[in-house]
C-alpha cells in the first residue's frame, strides 16, 4: 500500500502568527500596536489568532523577538513565525463540548392545579422553588469564586445578589455575583473582566462556558459552575445591584403573603414567555409588584422615599442614595387582610387599567408619575432633587421615559428597568393583564379554585395577534379631480362629516390643521365610537329597499344597528385627511387611539371597503358629469353602494387585508410618517 508523503511546511519570512489577544480586538488595534516594528498589514483576525504581514523579513523577526512582551488591551500576546499548512493535511474537527444544562423548572401542565387555591399554591411553590440542598450548592459557587480570584486580588469578596438571595430563586434561576476588590487594588483602567477570565480558565473542573462581555453597559463574565449546575453572571462594576437585592429581600419578607405572591407572578410571566433576554426582566416585574403593594387601598408596603427619611440610613453609591431603613418594627402598620389569591387578582386588575402610555411606575415615590414631567426637569416633584442635580452635573443620563412601559429604579432614578420592552411585547403583556383580571372576576365567587389553572394554562384568543393601528385609503383621484368647486378641500371635509356624523352617528371633533409644505396639508379629527355601527348586514331587509335614497337608507341602517345592539363601549380613534394640491389627491386615514383592538379591526376593514363607493355617491352633486357606458338592464344605479355586499357579518370582506393597498397605480406614495404600525 502506497503511503502518501506529507508536503513540507514552509515558512513565510515576512509574516507572523499572533495569539493571546482579547477576543474583542479589532484589526486596527493590532496595526497600531505592531506599527512600531515596521509597515504592517493584518491579513486575517479571528477570536483566537491573527496573521500579520510586514514589508520585509527583518521587521517580522523584530516583532517575533518581542513575543510575550507586546501588550494588547492589557494582555501579553505570543508572536511566532508564520508557516503554511501542508496542502494535503487534513485539519481534525474540533469537538465542541456541549453547553451544560442547569436545573429545569416544571411547566404548569406538570403541576397539580386542582382543589382549593391554597393547595394549588403550595403545589406550585414546591415545584418551582430551590431546595435546601440546591441553595447550599449555589453557596459553594461563591466560595469557589473567592478562592480562585483571591489569587489575583487578595482579600476580594464574592457578594451574591439577585433572585437567589431575595427568596425569589427558582430552579432555573441564574446566580448573580459582585466581586468587591479592596480599594488599594482598584484602578480606573484595570481590566478586571479579562484578568478574571484568565484565572477562571485555569479551573476547568469548577467552571466552564466562560464568556467575557467587556463592552456592555455593565461588563460581566458569564460562566457555568459545574458542581452546582448553575449559570452565573459575574460583575465588578458597581455594588448597586446588591443594594437593590437587599431592598427587595427586606420588603418581600415584611409580610408572609408577599413572597408567594411575587413567585406566582414571576412564574406566570415565565409560563407565557415574557421573561428572558430582551424581554421583561425579573427585576422589573418585582418592582411592579412592590409598586402595586404600595397603592391604596392595598397599602402593605411604604414608598422607598419613606424608607429614606432618616439621613443616618443614607448609603451613597455611584452618586445615588442606596440606603434605606431596614427595621421591621418601624414599618407603618397595615390593616390589609387580603388573601394571596385576592392580592394576585388585585395585581392583575391594577395593571389592566394602568395607563402605561402616560404614567411611570415609580416605587421611589410610591405613586404614578406623569411621563410628561420628565420632559422638563423643572416640573418634577421636589423629591427628585438628586436626579436633577446629577443631570446638571452630567453624572447620569436622563430617564428613558418614552418607552412603552417605564418602571423607574428605586435608587438609580435615571434607570428605566423596563426600557427593553418593545411596543408589541407591552401590548401582549397588557392583553394578558386584562385576561387574568377577567379570570379573577369570574373565579373569585368560586373561591378562586380555577384561577391558577386559567392564568397559567390558557391564553386570550387574540394573544400574539398583530393588530393594524392605522387603516388608510386613497380616495379615487378621478372623483377628486371632477369636483367643480374651486374650494374642493371643503367639499371633501363636508363629505367626510356626512359619512361619520350623519350616516354612522359618530361625532367628529376637529383637532390639528397642519401644512406640510406648499403641496400638502393635513386635517385631523378625534372621535369616539360607542356602538358597532359597521355591523350592518344583520339589520332587517326593510333598510335595503331600493327606492329609498342612499343617505336615508344608510341612516336607517345605523339607527337599527344602534337599536339592536344594547351594549356600549368606548373606541377612541382619529380621522386624518391628507390633501395634495397638484395633482389633486386625498388620503383618508383612521388611526387607533384607545379601546378594544378587535372592534377597531372590524371597523377598519369595514372602513376600507365602503369609503370609496360612499365618497363616489356623495360627491356626485359636486362633480362634473363624466361620460360612461353603464347600460346594464339589471342595475338600477351602478354607482350606489350595495348595502348587502358592503360588509360581511363581522364588518369586513373576508378577502380584505387589515390595511389598504397604497401601492396601486393611481395612488400617491405614502409619506414616511404614514406607514402601518403593529401594536
Radius of gyration: 34 Å
**Which structural class should the secondary elements be placed in?**
alpha+beta
Provide the CATH topology of the largest domain. Answer: Poly(a)-polymerase, middle domain
Q: How many structurally independent domains?
A: 4
Our estimate of the beta-strand percent is 15-25%
How many strands, which pairing sense, and closed or not: the largest β-sheet?
A: 5 strands, antiparallel
Number of helices, where a helix is a run of at least 4 consecutive DSSP H or I residues:
19
- Unreliable residue runs: 87-99, 628-679
Oligomer: single chain
Tell me the overall shape. Answer: globular
Q: How much helix is in the residues?
A: 25-40%
Which whole number gives the mean pLDDT?
Answer: 83
CATH C-level category of the largest domain: Mainly Alpha
Q: Kindly, what is the distance between the CA atoms of the first and last residues, rounded to a whole number of angstroms?
A: 71 Å
Let me know the number of strands. Answer: 19
CATH architectural group of the largest domain: Orthogonal Bundle
Q: What is the strand arrangement across the widest sheet?
A: 2-3-1-5-4
Cofactor: Mn(2+); Mg(2+)
Region (Disordered): 626-679
InterPro entries: MTPAP-like_central, NT_sf, Nucleotide-bd_a/b_plait_sf, PAP_assoc, RBD_domain_sf, RRM_dom
EC number: 2.7.7.52
Amino acid at each position: 500500500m502506497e503511503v502518501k508523503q506529507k508536503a513540507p511546511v514552509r515558512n513565510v519570512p515576512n509574516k507572523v502568527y499572533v495569539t493571546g489577544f482579547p477576543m474583542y480586538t479589532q484589526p486596527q488595534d493590532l496595526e497600531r500596536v505592531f506599527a512600531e516594528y515596521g509597515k504592517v498589514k493584518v491579513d486575517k483576525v479571528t477570536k483566537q489568532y491573527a496573521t500579520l504581514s510586514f514589508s520585509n523579513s527583518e521587521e517580522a523577526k523584530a516583532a517575533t523577538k518581542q513575543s510575550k512582551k507586546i501588550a494588547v488591551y492589557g494582555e501579553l500576546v505570543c508572536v511566532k513565525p508564520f508557516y503554511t499548512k501542508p496542502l494535503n493535511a487534513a485539519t481534525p474537527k474540533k469537538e465542541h463540548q456541549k453547553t451544560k444544562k442547569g436545573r429545569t423548572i416544571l411547566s404548569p401542565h406538570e403541576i397539580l392545579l386542582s382543589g382549593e387555591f391554597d393547595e394549588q399554591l403550595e403545589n406550585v411553590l414546591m415545584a418551582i422553588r430551590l431546595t435546601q440542598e440546591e441553595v447550599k450548592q449555589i453557596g459553594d459557587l461563591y466560595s469557589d469564586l473567592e478562592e480562585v480570584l483571591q489569587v489575583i486580588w487578595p482579600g476580594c469578596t464574592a457578594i451574591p445578589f439577585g433572585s437567589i438571595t431575595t427568596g425569589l430563586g427558582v430552579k432555573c434561576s441564574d446566580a448573580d455575583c459582585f466581586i468587591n476588590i479592596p480599594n488599594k487594588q482598584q484602578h480606573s483602567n484595570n481590566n478586571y473582566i479579562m484578568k478574571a477570565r484568565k484565572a477562571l480558565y485555569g479551573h476547568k473542573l469548577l467552571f466552564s462556558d466562560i464568556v467575557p462581555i467587556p463592552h456592555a453597559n455593565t461588563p460581566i463574565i458569564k460562566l457555568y459552575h459545574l458542581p452546582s449546575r448553575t449559570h452565573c453572571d459575574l460583575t465588578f462594576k458597581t455594588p448597586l445591584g446588591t443594594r437593590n437585592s437587599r431592598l427587595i429581600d427586606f420588603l418581600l419578607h415584611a409580610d408572609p403573603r408577599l413572597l408567594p405572591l411575587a413567585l406566582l407572578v414571576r412564574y406566570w410571566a415565565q409560563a407565557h414567555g415574557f421573561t428572558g433576554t430582551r424581554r421583561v426582566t425579573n427585576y422589573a416585574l418585582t418592582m411592579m409588584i412592590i409598586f402595586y403593594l404600595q397603592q391604596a387601598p392595598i397599602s402593605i408596603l411604604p414608598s422607598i422615599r419613606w424608607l429614606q427619611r432618616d439621613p443616618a440610613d443614607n448609603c451613597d453609591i455611584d452618586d445615588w442614595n442606596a440606603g434605606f431603613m431596614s427595621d421591621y418594627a418601624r414599618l407603618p402598620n397595615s390593616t390589609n387582610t387580603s388573601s394571596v389569591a385576592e392580592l394576585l387578582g388585585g395585581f392583575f386588575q391594577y395593571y389592566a387599567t394602568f395607563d402605561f402610555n402616560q404614567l411611570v411606575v415609580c416605587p421611589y415615590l410610591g405613586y404614578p408619575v406623569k411621563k410628561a414631567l420628565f420632559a422638563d426637569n423643572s416640573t418634577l416633584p421636589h423629591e427628585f432633587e438628586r436626579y436633577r442635580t446629577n443631570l446638571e452635573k452630567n453624572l447620569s443620563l436622563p430617564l428613558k421615559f418614552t418607552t412603552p412601559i417605564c418602571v423607574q429604579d428605586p435608587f438609580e432614578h435615571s434607570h428605566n428597568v423596563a426600557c427593553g420592552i418593545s411596543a408589541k411585547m407591552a401590548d401582549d403583556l397588557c392583553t394578558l393583564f386584562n385576561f387574568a383580571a377577567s379570570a379573577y372576576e369570574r373565579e373569585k365567587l368560586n373561591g378562586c379554585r380555577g384561577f391558577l389553572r386559567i392564568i397559567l394554562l390558557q391564553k386570550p384568543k387574540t394573544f400574539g395577534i398583530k393588530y393594524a393601528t392605522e387603516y388608510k385609503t386613497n380616495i379615487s383621484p378621478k372623483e377628486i379631480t371632477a369636483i367643480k368647486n374651486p374650494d374642493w378641500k371643503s367639499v371633501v371635509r363636508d363629505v367626510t362629516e356626512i359619512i361619520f356624523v350623519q350616516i354612522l352617528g359618530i361625532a367628529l371633533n376637529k383637532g390639528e390643521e397642519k401644512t406640510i409644505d406648499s403641496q400638502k396639508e393635513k386635517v385631523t379629527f378625534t372621535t369616539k365610537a360607542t356602538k358597532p355601527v359597521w355591523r350592518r348586514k344583520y339589520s332587517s331587509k326593510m333598510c335595503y329597499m331600493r327606492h329609498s335614497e342612499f343617505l336615508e337608507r344608510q341612516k336607517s341602517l345605523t339607527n337599527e344597528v344602534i337599536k339592536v345592539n344594547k351594549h356600549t363601549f368606548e373606541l377612541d380613534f382619529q380621522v386624518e385627511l391628507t390633501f395634495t394640491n397638484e395633482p389633486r389627491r386625498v388620503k383618508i386615514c383612521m388611526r387607533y387611539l384607545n379601546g378594544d383592538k378587535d372592534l377597531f379591526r372590524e371597523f377598519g376593514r369595514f372602513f376600507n371597503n365602503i369609503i370609496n363607493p360612499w365618497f363616489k355617491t356623495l360627491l356626485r352633486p359636486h362633480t362634473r358629469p363624466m361620460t360612461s357606458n353603464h347600460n346594464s338592464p339589471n342595475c338600477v344605479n351602478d354607482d350606489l353602494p350595495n348595502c348587502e355586499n358592503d360588509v360581511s357579518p363581522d364588518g369586513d370582506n373576508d378577502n380584505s387585508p387589515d390595511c389598504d393597498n397604497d401601492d396601486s397605480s393611481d395612488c400617491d406614495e405614502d409619506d414616511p410618517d404614514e406607514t402601518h404600525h403593529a401594536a
